[in-house]
Amino acid sequence: MIGPIPIPGRHAQILPDAPPTPEKLDPDSENHYAGPMHDTHTRRDAIRIGLAASATALLSPAALARQPRHAMPYTISLAQWSLHKLLFANEISNLDFAREARAMEFDAIEYVNAFFKDKATDADYLARMNKQASDEGVTQLLIMIDGEGALGDADNSKRTEAINNHRRWIDAASTLGCHSIRVNAQSSGSYEQQQKLAADGLARLTEIGDEHGINVIVENHGGLSSNGHWLAGVMKLVDHPRCGTLPDFGNFCMDWSRVQEPDAWYDRYKGVGELMPYAKAVSAKSHEFDEQGNETKTDYDRMMRIVVDAGYHGYVGVEYEGSKHSPREGCRLTKALLERVRADIAQG
Asked: Is 11 among the domain residues?
C-alpha cells in the first residue's frame, strides 16, 4: 500500500555551495545562490557580467584556467567511480582518493559509498577522510549511494527501511562537509504508480536531509529513472528545494537487458535538458575518445551548452567508465575535453 505522499510547500531552490560566480548574491541571504530557478540580476550585475565575458573571450584555454572561478561557466570535479577498477583491484583505497584527485589536478571529489560501505558511522575513519581531503586541498562534494534499498519500493515497510538505511549516509555526508547524497529512484508498477512511490520515498528522505542541511539528489540510473520526463515529474511531485537531480550524460538506458536496441535508450540530450532545472550536480560520463580528444558517444560541446544554458554553473563531475584508456588516462582526457569546451563556451 502506498503511504501518504507529503507535499512540502514550494520554496526557493536550495543549491549546493559553488565557487563564486556572477550569480552569487549576498552570502548572508537565505537564497544566496542564483541557479536555474532564479533570476536575480540587477542592471549593475548585468554590466559586470558583460564586462567579465568580454575579457574572458580574449583568453586562451590555458589562461582561462588560471582565472578566478567566477570567469568560468562551470568547474570540474572527479567522481570516484572513474577509478573503480583500481579500487576493486585494491591497487588504491578510498583513503587514497583525495591524493589521486590532486595528482590529476582536480580540486573537488565525489565519493561512492561502495568503497567505504562499512564506515558510514565510523567517526575515526570519516575524520581520516576529512584530513586526507584537507591535506590535499580538495573539497568533498557528495556521496553516491547504492545498495541501500529501493526508495520507491511498492511495499511501504520496505520503502521505510530503505529510507532508514540512507540516514547514516546523510550523517556521513554532513560530517564530510558534502552538500548532497546521490540516491536512486528504483520502483515497480505502472508509470504513474512508480512516480508516486518514488516521490513518497524521496520526500520522506529529503525531510531528513533538510534537518542536516543535506540535499537528496537523484541520478538517471536505469529503469524509468532514465526517462527524463518521468524523473522530472517525480521532482514536481516531491516539490522540495533540497530534492533535485544529478543528470548523467550516459545513463539513459531504460532496460539494460536490451542495451543494444535503440528503443531501450532515452535521448540523452533531451533527458539532460529535462533534468537540468532540478540539477544540483552533473556527471560527465565518458567511455572512449578519438584522436582529436572528443568523446565518441556524447557531443560534449552540445551537452555542456545544454547544462550552462539551464543556468547551471557548479561542479561537473568527471566519470570515466571506459576500457580503451586506463582509468587515470580516461580521467585526464575527460577533464581536458571539459576544459576545452569550457573555454569555447566562455568565448561565446
From this structure: no
What is the arithmetic mean of pLDDT over 44-71?
42
Please give the span between the terminal C-alpha atoms of the chain, in angstroms, as a whole number: 53
For residue 153, what are the domain limits? 73-346
pLDDT score, position 16? 55
Q: What's the structural domain count of the chain?
A: 1
- Lowest-pLDDT range, 3-7, 206-210, 247-251? 3-7
Distance CA 204, CA 220 (A): 20
- Residue 114 covered by a domain: yes
CA distance 227 to 247: 11
- The Cβ-side half-sphere exposure at 22, using a 13 Å CA radius, reads 20
Q: 110 pairs with which residues across the strands?
A: 79, 142
Residue 67 domain-assigned (yes or no) = no
| pTM for the model | 0.82
In terms of C-beta density within 10 A (0-12 exposed, 13-18 middle, 19 or more buried), how is residue 19 classed? middle
Q: Is residue 148 part of a domain?
A: yes
| Confidence (pLDDT) at 348 | 81
